[in-house]
Design a protein that fits this description.
6-stranded parallel beta sheet, 12 strands, 6-stranded mixed beta sheet, alpha/beta
Length: about 250
């Protein structure tokens, strides 16, 4: 009888029953015959519970990290990849054979790969709604694409404007509008970022990192004005496959 090597993976976050990752990786393991591989949710109320997961979960090889722990998990890690260190947010953790924890960011890769096919010469600048961990990966990808960007926050900050500043001129200057906030995620599907949607045109891209629902109010309102829309599903698939490669290299 052949011994099956058990490998456990999972998602670290809060209120993550809705999560894409568990279903995606469970299906992947079944469809591609990764016998012995399992994926589970580690839903914790505070990041301070994270060391207990590492201590008490045997055979754990890798984790995805989601809201709200992409930044606060960093002090618990032994090492960061160069990109994760630059971005300042982690969404993938590899647990080495020696039990060390190394943080990576595959969000930026997934976002970049999913946005690139949409880009045309008139898409020159981007507006990033939100300043949390997800926005950092978006900004890093835009840097790699040589697309200047501005953050939008509920309060004006040193590197961000507030929502009240967005007007027709803003939409003239920024042709890519990216929602990196959780506003509009299921079950709160009627919510949307408070921006003047009437200024979207067919020259704009509206990109929402949310994938559930597939078409958020943000995307619906932008589409009504003729904008090209994109949700976060492809980004998630690209970043998940990148994470799988990291865990197995």
């Amino acid at each position: 009888m052949v011994d099956i090597v058990r490998k456990r993976f999972g998602l670290l976050g809060r209120n993550i029953n809705y999560s894409f990752s568990k279903g995606y990786f469970t299906d992947k393991f079944n469809n591609e015959n990764f016998t012995g591989c399992t994926y589970e949710n580690f839903d914790i109320p505070e990041i301070s519970s994270f060391p207990e997961i590492i201590k008490n979960t045997s055979d754990l090889k890798g984790l995805n990290v989601t809201i709200p722990y992409k930044e606060t998990v960093i002090p618990f890690l032994d090492k960061l990849s160069k990109n994760a260190a630059q971005i300042g947010a982690v969404n993938t953790i590899k647990i080495t054979k020696k039990g060390k924890l190394k943080g990576y960011n595959t969000d930026y890769y997934g976002f970049k790969k999913s946005l690139e096919p949409l880009l045309q010469p008139h898409h020159k600048k981007a507006l990033i709604l939100g300043t949390g961990g997800a926005s950092k990966g978006v900004a890093f990808a835009l840097d790699e694409l040589d697309i200047p960007y501005t953050f939008v926050s509920r309060e004006a900050k040193e590197n961000a404007i507030d929502y009240d500043r967005i007007n027709a001129t803003t939409f003239d200057n920024y042709q890519i509008i990216i929602n990196s906030t959780p506003v509009g995620t299921s079950p709160n599907v009627d919510a949307f970022p408070l921006i003047p949607y009437e200024f979207f045109t067919d020259k704009h891209i509206a990109y929402d990192l949310i994938y559930n629902p597939a078409e958020t109010q943000f995307l619906k309102k932008a589409k009504q004005q003729g904008a090209q829309i994109k949700n976060g599903l492809d980004m998630l698939i690209f970043q998940a496959e990148k994470a799988w490669k990291i865990w197995n290299k």
